[in-house]
Amino acid sequence: MKSNVIRPRPAQSDEALAYFQSQLRFETDCWDVHYALNNNLFDFVLLDVRGLEVAKKGYIEGATLMPHPTITQARLKHYPEDTVFVVYCAGPHCNATEKAAIKLARLGRPVKKMIGGVTGWLDEGFELTCD
pTM of the entire structure? Predict the structure, then answer.
């Protein structure tokens, strides 16, 4: 009898490699964002896409507050077309990042999701800024 862990069978190595490499095109993690922000590597714009009232209670320093419903071409006009946006929300239980990423992609903007969101940020021991 086999466990549910290996049923169905794992993907072939070449398929797994392609899959996991492709994930990195769509996602980044809290550690990589934290490292970049703390080493002046500002080659992306970090967007907090939660509601303003929630975000003001605690957000990542350096993030731009832009709730996902407010993402429009007009709001993005001062960013160069090739600006990479990294979006985050409350955490794995929140889908605001996906909503924001869909909007940004529809507007033709490069976008990645910061996996873990605020929950992941705090789990890693990083701090939030409050207004």
Answer: 0.92
Whether omega for the bond prior to residue 110 falls within 30 degrees of 0, making it cis, is no
Reference 80, options 125, 43, 30; nearest CA is 43
Residues 30-40: pLDDT tens digits?
999 999 999 99
d(CA 114, CA 35): 13
What tokens appear for 67 in the block?
Answer: 């709730």
For residue 120, give every residue at least 6 positions away whose Cβ sits within 8 Å of its Cβ, in sequence order, or none.
29, 30, 91, 92, 114
Q: How confident is the model at residue 1 (pLDDT cuts 50, 70, 90)?
A: confident
Query: 60 to each of 44, 101, 131, how far by Cα in Å?
Result: 14, 18, 11
> Which residues have C-beta within 8 Å of that of residue 80, sequence separation ≥ 6?
none
Whether the CB-CB separation of 1 and 92 falls below 8 Å is answered with no
pLDDT at position 77: 97
Sign, CA torsion 30/89/113/49: negative
Mean pLDDT score across all residues of the chain: 96
